[in-house]
Amino acid sequence: MNNSDLLTIKDLTIDFSTYDGTARVVDDLSLCVNRGEIVGLVGESGCGKTVTAKTVLGILPRPPGKIVNGQILFKDQDLLTLKEKELQVIRGKEFGFVPQDPMTFLNPVFTIATQMFDTHAFRGSLDIDLLQYLRVSRDKNRRTEAMQRALEMLQKVNIPDPDRVLQAYPVELSGGMRQRVLIAMALMEKPSFMIADEPATALDVSVGEQINEVLETRVREEGISVLYITHDLGVARRLCDRIYVMYAGDIVETAPTRKLFEEPKHPYTLGLLKSVPKIYGEISRGIEGAIPDYYNPPQGCRFHPRCPHTMAVCKQERPALAEIATGHQVACYLYSQEKRAK
Ligand code: SF4
């Protein structure tokens, strides 16, 4: 870990045990997010992005999930070695989370005001009993202070008529408004790190664009580091400083955003780029095949059954990430002279 790293994931390996067997859904994954950076984690649905995010946040259901190996270092502390209470304090004070589906993350029976008050008053706390809750929630000074902060945050995410929104129930708001509320809640306690898990996917394209714009403006202004998860390379290109491309549980390529788009190397990255819809020209057929069966993944490079350049060595040994230019790493034998000679 160097001084500018905020979050470093090292050799993370996660299994899921089910009646059908053991599925290795994250396999020796390493990545880092530096201070003030927006880092993209891109790949098809089902390649392990959300499982990785949930593990960082400490909300991976265990069982069936099992962390087999690895470290998640946040400000030099390994989150995987912390007790639940210690993790809750860090998560509450340092982390923000913007989920994919804004409806399921807001409680339908409480107003936005109540949910934002709770976020402000109890973030990082565990085991709040009813008496404590009532004492704090009836404290007029705390209530006034929390509501001022909530209004300020709703204004910052460009919600028109924030007073009305505060008194509304989630069902009274559109999907875009709910997502803005969740961004406001995630930023309310000034986190240093945020995970945004496909925050615009459940919204229509124009609303999704607005949400991404609001999110980017806020995190850049506040200097928050972000791990931005998406399957949309176009969105990652607009928002992210660096990108990790993930396939079947591991990183196959990483580079600064501009480099990745100007000189993509890994056949999977090239396939993803070809799959981005274009206004003119041929309609791409995308990448042939599908994400492998995690119970019985292919030996060697997990991409080999779908790769147009598969060589004998690809089916035997898994390629390691190797640096091909400053900050640009690829896990592919096409860029490893030693293995190609075999
Ligand atoms: Fe294709 Fe082989 Fe490279 Fe995997 S290692 S992406 S199979 S060329």
Task: List the topology elements.
Blueprint: E1 5-18, E2 21-34, E3 38-42, H1 49-57, E4 65-74, E5 77-78, H2 84-94, E6 95-98, H3 112-122, H4 130-137, H5 140-156, H6 162-167, H7 175-187, E7 193-197, H8 205-222, E8 225-230, H9 233-239, E9 242-247, E10 250-256, H10 257-262, H11 267-275, E11 322-325, E12 328-330, H12 337-340
Parallel strand pairs: 3-8, 3-9, 6-7, 7-8
Antiparallel strand pairs: 1-2, 1-4, 4-5, 9-10, 10-12, 11-12
Helix pairs in contact: 3-5, 5-7, 7-8
The structure holds iron/sulfur cluster.
Keywords for this entry:
342 residues, alpha/beta, Rossmann fold, eight-stranded mixed β-sheet, four-stranded antiparallel β-sheet, 12 strands, 35% helix, 23% strand, globular, binds iron/sulfur cluster
Unreliable residue stretches? none
Strand arrangement across the biggest beta sheet: 6-7-8-3-9-10-12-11
Beta-strand level of the residues, as a percent range? 15-25%
Give the tally of structural domains.
Answer: 1
Bound molecules: iron/sulfur cluster
Mean pLDDT: 87
CATH class: Alpha Beta
The major beta sheet can be summarized as: 8 strands, mixed
Helix content: 25-40%
Report the count of strand segments.
12
The CATH topology: Rossmann fold
Radius of gyration: 21 Å
Strand-pairing-aware structural class: alpha/beta
What gross morphology would you assign? globular
Total count of helical runs of at least 4 residues? 12
Order of helices and strands: EEEHEEHEHHHHHEHEHEEHHEEH
Describe this structure in a few short sentences.
With 342 residues, the protein is α/β, with parallel strands linked by helices.
